[in-house]
Amino acid sequence: MDVAVAQTLFLAVSLSCLMIFFVRKRMYQRDKLPPGPTPLPFIGNLLQIETNGTGKALMKMSEKYGPVFRLYLGSKLTVVVCGYEAVKEALVDQGEAFGGRGSMETFNQVLQGFGIGFSNGENWKQTRQFSLLTMKDFGMGKKGIEERIQEEAQILVEEFRKTKQLPFDPTFFFCQMTENVICSIIFGDRFDYDDKEFLGLLQMINESFRLISSIWGQLYNIFTSIMKYVPGPHQRIRQCFESLEDYILKKVKQNQETLDPNNPRNFIDSFLIKIDQEKQNPSSYFHMKNLTATVFSIFLGGAETTSTTLRYGFLILLKYPEIEEKLHEEIDRKMNREHIPCFEDRSKMPYTNAVIHEIQRFIDLIPLNGIHEVTKDTQFRGYTIPKGTQVIPLLHSVLWDPTQFSDPESFNPGHFLDEKGNFKKNDAFIPFSAGKRICLGEGLARMELFLFFVSILQNFSLKSNTPPKDIDISPAVSNFSNFPHFYEISFIPR
């Protein structure tokens, strides 16, 4: 046989064997994946998922495929984990493997993989550790920040008095109140309620979160390479985020001009000092882009999550005036009108504590959780999840898990009360997620919610021009985040 022919034959056989090996390996890996619906080319399983109410749609899908199933968002393989037991096993028991952060281009187009919300690996570990320690230095979780929340609550009470019992949309009052607490840590200052620049930023943040949860935002995250060239409302997200980034850069430059390395005044000062300390380290994660991205993440989280919980919570109280009446009764019984509510009061106010927990459980603020990603090939409940696979640990399926909460679709403070009326914990209450990616500001948010709710209800009764039976407490928008329907409220001095 001719040598050239023999070599060609050998090469062909070798390539054929390799092809067979890789095809068999691919088929084996697919067989080891969790079950799931058959995807269509290019669009995957998008036609089988509701665009508004995605959390409920995925929970319904789990009834057919089990607590762990796969689907394709476009061409992106995604594994969904449902129910308290499975989510806990993933985020806590196998927290290292499930601790990666999946990509959301709506955020990454500005953050570029930095900050604490959408970074990974050593960058995320170092930035998160520094942020936690620094925010504690400036009072988070301590008496100092409690006094700051109390002060902001009293300012808001006076702002509500100025409304003269007239109905109004409370959205940006709550945004300004909660953001001012965050601003006291990162900027070292608060903003007046009539500050037009600050109010404009909050309006853009609210708008961008709504757009991210819309069908336009969903399509942008799934089909980024196409949608970034398509005109539409999703293009506004980048504009809003860039305006916020510009504002943060302006604040950073102001700090640089007056920085005293021996006397940091706020979070930005401390980060600038850290940048200077590591300027000789070319692989340092402490640089200007990471500073702006980190402040961006904290600022964004402080504006939307707690304020939306407050806004949704007061809508629920308008729906159930009998619950508001019980709250007033407990508040009046446990403290006089001159007493400024403090976080210690929570232990002697079980009904109020239960109502706040039930608000957080029921509104299911971030139903899909932050998108996770497995950091290595992972064995989970008999399946193999390849490294880099996007994972949705479905918070909706935990907070509305019927094995953990009786009649989860109903708003019932009794979910957190025992037969004697004492507050009752529930391990499935994880609105801040769990494991390594648990919300950085969980402790701060818990304190804010209690102090703000109690301070307002101590001073006001609630009134709506809409009869309770006609108030809709289902989400107006439900995808990345749940938003309540628009409403107006009157605060009547007590």
TrEMBL record:
The chain crosses the membrane at residues 6-23. This is Cytochrome P450 2A5-like isoform X1. Signal peptide: none annotated. Keywords: Endoplasmic reticulum, Heme, Iron, Membrane, Metal-binding, Microsome, Monooxygenase, Oxidoreductase, Transmembrane, Transmembrane helix. It is found in: Endoplasmic reticulum membrane; Microsome membrane. Heme binds at residue 439. The lineage of its organism: Eukaryota, Metazoa, Chordata, Craniata, Vertebrata. The gene is LOC117365113. Coiled coil: none annotated. GO terms for cellular component: endoplasmic reticulum membrane. Gene3D superfamilies: Cytochrome P450. The keyword Membrane applies. It comes from Geotrypetes seraphini (Gaboon caecilian). One of its GO terms (biological process) is xenobiotic metabolic process. One of its GO terms (molecular function) is heme binding. Belongs to the cytochrome P450 family. PANTHER family: CYTOCHROME P450 2G1-LIKE-RELATED, CYTOCHROME P450 508A4-RELATED. Its cofactor is heme.
